[in-house]
Design goal:
Blueprint (H helix, E strand, L loop, with lengths): L2 H17 L4 H17 L1 H12 L4 H19 L6 E6 L4 E7 L2 E6 L6 H12 L3 E6 L4 H18 L6 E3 L5 H10 L2 E4 L3 H8 L5 E3 L6 E4 L5 H13 L11 E5 L3 H10 L2 E3 L3 H11 L14 H7 L10 E4 L18 E7 L2 H14 L3 E7 L3 H10 L2 E6 L3 H4 L34 E7 L10 H5 L1
Helix pairs in contact: 2-4, 2-5, 2-6, 3-4, 3-6, 4-5, 13-14
Length: 452
């Protein structure tokens, strides 16, 4: 093991041993502090995130810093994670929480503040120490968060080393770190996730997003368009749960696109202009790093297209859906692809085929009041979350209005080569011991009863 990574892990190990001696109240005091610090410093941290990553929207990052710190702590406070979790006298089971140890967390430049915060809160809630391996374009943010935490940890008499940041991150160092720790959270590109799963340690990764947006007949089109646009443009489209497409009923297709235009969309009808834009967004078939998290005006300018300043999102009309079309992929910028359908079954098939190109296991955005249609899509689509009449980008990671675990790590199941098909939560970062007693009044059923 390299000396730098070895030193980090040893420091973390010593701090974790002290952390594991705290009671529930003191442990929760630390977790709450981790949220409150980001909440209280939301503006300067958002400013640094935009400057360092060179992507996203300052105002949206403020909302993210405040929103995630608020909802994650609210979901965790008052919940047991230390010692005895519960007793089931009838079953004869007593469950106890135990730390995993040291968590290695690879974090992305798209969320350089809230992902380290979230992962640290989950880890420390279960009395694990954590080492953050930030993206190179997120290391200043991680260091700034650490400095704020250290002032509070010093005040609380808690070892600083329960939260460590790799100062000069690299692929090699991150790979080494993941192999040296006890469990891994990998929030980033597929290469990083694959490396985590190759580390030999229990790992939680994410899959790519490509959230398909389905609009059902009879829904309020104005409200649906508003939610889908808000989902697409949040933080200039870098959120993996942002809505990627508009799959609308043929009979109301033009009316729906007009609604999108009225709310800030720039709809491109010219196939030549669409092709010109595709070369800028997907040069060689892969998304360009130069368009990720940029405004529609900046992206259009790269393609030599002039767009009014009041336009928020570009809508293209691909010639078809599914394989072989770049617009079927995830677009990490404020661009949406629009399709029309004759039947709901066809709408779901369009979404399914686009997901097979990219984004299997992530999420779908459905705007519908028809429970039969909603459940049909839920059964048919290979996704872990079906968001109904919500702003997917800001709510698929948990919201006060829904019951999903609040998180910054959205598991995509085996579809996305992930270990879990749900939102990562602190409960995923604890070991459990079980005391097993003989059940009261137990009786073995007869063979006739068993096989009847």
């Amino acid at each position: 093991m390299g000396s730098y990574v070895h030193t980090l892990v040893e420091r973390s190990r010593r701090a974790q041993e002290i952390l594991a001696t705290y009671d529930q109240a003191k442990t929760d005091e630390i977790v709450k502090m981790f949220a409150k610090v980001v909440f209280d410093h939301a503006e300067p941290l958002a400013k640094l995130a935009v400057e360092e990553s060179r992507m996203g929207v300052y105002e949206d990052k403020i909302l993210k810093n405040k929103g995630k710190s608020r909802i994650i702590w609210n979901a965790m406070k008052g919940r047991k994670s230390v010692g005895i979790l519960g007793r089931d006298e009838e079953a004869g089971i007593i469950e106890m929480a135990k730390p995993m140890g040291i968590i290695a967390a690879a974090t992305p430049c798209t969320n350089p503040v809230v992902t380290p915060m979230c992962n640290a809160m989950f880890a420390i809630k279960c009395q694990n120490a954590i080492i953050i391996a930030p993206h190179p374009r997120g290391r200043k943010c991680a260091a700034a968060v650490a400095d704020l935490y250290y002032k509070e940890l010093d005040r609380m008499g808690v070892p600083r080393d329960i939260f460590l940041v790799m100062e000069e991150p690299s692929v090699e160092r991150t790979t080494e770190l993941m192999a040296a720790c006890d469990a891994v959270i990998a929030t980033g590109g597929m290469a990083m996730v694959k490396s985590a799963y190759s580390s030999g340690k229990p790992s939680y990764g994410v899959g790519p997003g490509n959230v398909q947006g389905l609009i059902d007949e009879g829904i309020n089109y104005k409200e649906a368009a508003g939610r889908m646009i808000a989902s697409r443009i949040f933080d200039n489209g870098i959120i993996c749960s942002g809505t990627q497409s508009i799959i609308a009923p043929e009979k109301d297709y033009e009316e729906i696109l007009k609604e999108f235009e009225d709310q800030g969309a720039y709809v491109i009808d010219d196939p030549d202009v669409t092709a010109k834009l595709a070369k800028v967004v997907f040069p060689g078939g892969a998304i360009s790093k130069h368009v990720v998290g940029q405004s529609v005006q900046a992206i259009a300018g790269m393609a030599g297209i002039s767009i009014p300043e009041d336009r928020k999102v570009i809508v293209v009309k691909p010639e078809r859906y599914g394989a072989g079309i770049v617009w079927s992929k995830e677009k990490m910028c404020p661009i949406m692809a629009a399709y029309s359908y004759k039947t709901w079954e066809e709408a779901v098939e369009i979404a399914h085929q686009n997901l097979l190109v990219e984004g299997e296991g992530h999420s779908a955005d459905i705007q519908s009041d028809n429970r039969t249609h909603i459940e049909y899509a839920g059964v048919k689509l290979p996704v872990s979350r079906v968001m109904v009449n919500q702003i997917s980008s800001s709510m698929a990671g948990g919201a006060f209005a829904n019951s999903l675990n609040p998180t910054t790590t959205l598991g995509c199941g085996s579809w996305g080569n992930n270990a879990i098909s749900e939102n990562l939560f602190y409960t995923h970062l604890m070991n459990k011991s079980r005391i097993v007693l003989v059940k009261k009044n137990w009786k073995q059923p007869s063979d006739e009863e068993i096989f009847s």
